Hints:
Elements: E1 7-8, E2 12-20, E3 25-31, E4 36-44, H1 51-66, E5 76-81, E6 85-91, E7 96-97, H2 98-105, H3 110-128, E8 134-135, E9 144-146, E10 152-154, E11 161-162, H4 193-209, H5 223-226, H6 232-241, H7 253-261, H8 268-315, H9 320-329, H10 335-338, H11 346-350, H12 358-369, E12 371-374, E13 380-383, H13 385-392, H14 394-410, H15 417-428, H16 436-457, H17 460-480, H18 486-502, H19 504-510, H20 513-528, H21 536-562
Antiparallel strand pairs: 1-2, 2-3, 3-4, 4-6, 5-6, 7-9, 8-11, 9-10, 12-13
Helix pairs in contact: 3-4, 3-7, 4-6, 8-9, 13-14, 14-15, 15-16, 16-17, 17-18, 17-19, 18-20, 18-21, 20-21
Amino acid sequence: MLEIGSLVDGKYKILNKVGQGGMSVVYLAMNEKANKQWAVKEVRKDGVKDFEIVKQGLVAETDILKKLNHPNLPSIVDVIDTNDSFIIIMDYIQGNSLNKALDEYGAQPQEHVIAWAKQLCDVLGYLHTRNPAIIYRDMKPANVMLKPDGNVTLIDFGTAREFKEKNLADTTCLGTVGYAAPEQFGGMGQTDARTDIYCLGATLYHLVTGMNPCEPPYEIKPIREINPALSSGLERIIQKCTQRDPNDRYQSAAELMYALEHYEEIDDLYKKKQKRKLYKFIACVALTLVFAGTSVWGYLAAENKKRENYDYILANADSPEDYYEAIVTDPTRVEAYLGDGDNKGLINFLIDDDKLTGDDSAVFTKLKGGLDQKNMMGYSSTVKVLEELKESNPKGYEDVCYQIGEACMFFSSVAVKDDKYITAATWFQHAGDRYPVAKIYCDIASCLQNIQKFKNAEQFVNLYKEYETLWNKVQTLQKDALKYDIDLKLRVWKETVSMIRNNVEYFCEVSSKSEITTLLEDIKTNCSLMTGIGLKDSVSSIIESVETTKSKIETVKTEKAEG
């Protein structure tokens, strides 16, 4: 035996003996240079029958452990073969075996056993997935060390082996009776991963019940026959692990791990609770459906009433205030703005005389700010009607913005003509995705604002660049007009001619007389093709305006020549 205080291999100082088995003694040693404790396992040749056979087993054990790296396994750091003994230097595992915990306290708490089982299952899964797989074959409480932090370490790989296909006679009476699977005693095929599943199941049985399967009656009973307070889910897991036929057990450590992680879900008490929850849920759903049905009925009735009120108010509207009332009754609808065939709508009501006055324009401004609505108590609140319309009916919102923009653009009676573009643009900017002409009008409005700015600043280079941009927009407007309906064509042509007439001096600077005249002639020609009831006066007005503008172009040119 090694003496306390002696040095092994010149660096491992023996501190004291910590354990002894049939063939070996385990010491606690210190590597003083590294300031680290190690376990030293010594097997002496004297007193051991067939030492060479034992040595082969030890070499096999150390060869296996050297290949492994897992937090729940010890590491082999050195093997020393002397004339008198075979010494293995490995991690010192502080703590005691689970067997000692059973001796001192009996059955262990169920939650602790399940936590240990998961760690051991993880170790077995690691061993079984090596290439080749490693079968441990001697799982039992005595081979599991419980450390102070609550984690466990699997020790003693004396009976472990590497799995070999078709090696049917790999094991004869290896393992510990009571914990070992039936196939470990020959005649049932070779041991494999399912063998370790059996051993772990038997170990869990001993830990959770305190009943040693190595002692009479040498059987593994349902654990709740011993302690009815234990989980039926855990009972099912242990029973499946310890089936005599390997095919009836869990087929892998991963499968067992899943069961352990969900043991409560296969517990009878858990199932009863879940059934009660299901019944409560069904009852709640039924009540919810009843309440929902009542609510839906109430909602539909309220919506129907609101629709009736909306339609009645709209049909009898005779002032902006009447239209306001319809709008706040249901801000998600557009009929109060645009009309619905039988009724005008607010926008057409305001331009019914083909003129949009300053007071009329103030109506649109009011819509932006929101409309007042009184509740049942008589208190007023502001409803952001256009915001609600935009959120609930985006297309309807764009339609309303475009129609308001048209009203400001084509029917405005403001004195400063450029202002109507700028005012209309504040509405057209929300309709550009569905109405391309709205985007062009916004661009023209931007040009007009820049022109005014550059005029005031006397920045003439920028001024003429802006007029060139404006002229290009006017050309685009006239070209695209052919795509529009008749009413919009006439409005666009009228505004185009008006825009040229009002800016003729500058357009003549950035373009040519022939180009401007050609554009006007195109408008005149296309207008002449317009026939139909009510179109004659509009067409005649545009053609007359074209001729007046053409004359003005010649005047501008004459003045430039004289100058």
